[in-house]
Design goal:
By secondary structure, the chain is of the alpha/beta class. It has 8 helices and 7 strands. A 7-stranded parallel beta sheet has the order 3-2-1-4-5-6-7, with helices on both faces.
């Protein structure tokens, strides 16, 4: 299937590792020029080189999504340099898995307000695209009790609600808005590899909850994300797509 992304321009926040990196790579494989950001600068050169190996233009910068001014400046400069913007993937997360004031503030500033500011900065450029799409990475933790009382769960729920509202508000401008809720996703250096090493009993319990007997991969989340951002999904908006291998037991309406 031709996803119609050849020559398109994409921005991915949190794009140097894990799910964000897999999304950026998949976009590049489909022929889209890709710009990524991450809080740390060390991994950016390698990530950009890998993206460029697919024959597209790529760029990267160290940007703290919690720094509104720096984030908006980067998105503006990047969209101008790319000659427009068609796809925006808001992936950056504080991964605030605790129930402390510090965790709640971090999750709010990065997962919620970081996404709000990302979209607002990108909107003027997306309005000019004939195939504009926004996809935010949420979590199944937003939909059910998972892992205890955590800032992460509640802020991801807020993110899904915000994306749904944006879908209605931005449809008249030709901008589609969706979210992806991954389940337990295993990748090198990720949360679940850490759990496997540090909390093996908890890891085994989580693994056993997966009907397929395995956790998902970052590439599987990327495939779903890039599809939602593509031409074949041109009449899909306001959707929260679960990529969880059937882990979520509730019925989604």
């Amino acid at each position: 299937m031709d996803l119609g992304l050849q020559g398109r321009k994409a921005i991915v926040t949190g794009g140097t590792r894990g799910i964000g990196r897999a999304i950026a790579e998949r976009l590049a494989m489909e022929g889209a020029d890709v710009a990524i950001c991450a809080r740390g600068a060390d991994a950016i050169p390698e990530a950009v080189a890998s993206l460029e190996s697919h024959g597209v233009k790529a760029s990267g910068a160290a940007v703290d999504v919690g720094d509104e001014a720096a984030l908006k400046a980067w998105i503006t400069e990047t969209a101008e340099a790319m000659g427009g913007l068609d796809v925006l993937v808001a992936n950056a997360s504080a991964l605030a898995s605790e129930d402390t004031e510090k965790a709640w503030r971090a999750a709010f500033e990065i997962d919620v307000m970081g996404t709000v500011h990302t979209v607002k900065a990108a909107e003027p450029y997306l309005e000019k695209s004939d195939a504009a799409a926004i996809v935010a990475i949420a979590s199944i933790s937003a939909l059910q009790y998972f892992g205890g009382v955590r800032a992460y769960n509640s802020m991801k729920a807020a993110l899904i609600n915000h994306m749904s509202n944006l879908a209605h508000a931005l449809a008249p401008k030709g901008i589609r808005v969706n979210s992806i809720s991954p389940g337990t996703i295993y990748f090198e250096g990720g949360v679940w590899q850490q759990r496997e090493q540090e909390m093996p009993e908890f890891f085994e319990t989580a693994m056993a909850m997966n009907p397929f007997g395995r956790m998902g991969t970052a590439e599987e989340v990327a495939d779903a994300t890039v599809f939602l951002a593509s031409r074949p999904a041109s009449f899909i908006t306001g959707v929260n797509l679960m990529v969880d291998g059937g882990l979520t037991q509730g019925v989604q309406y």
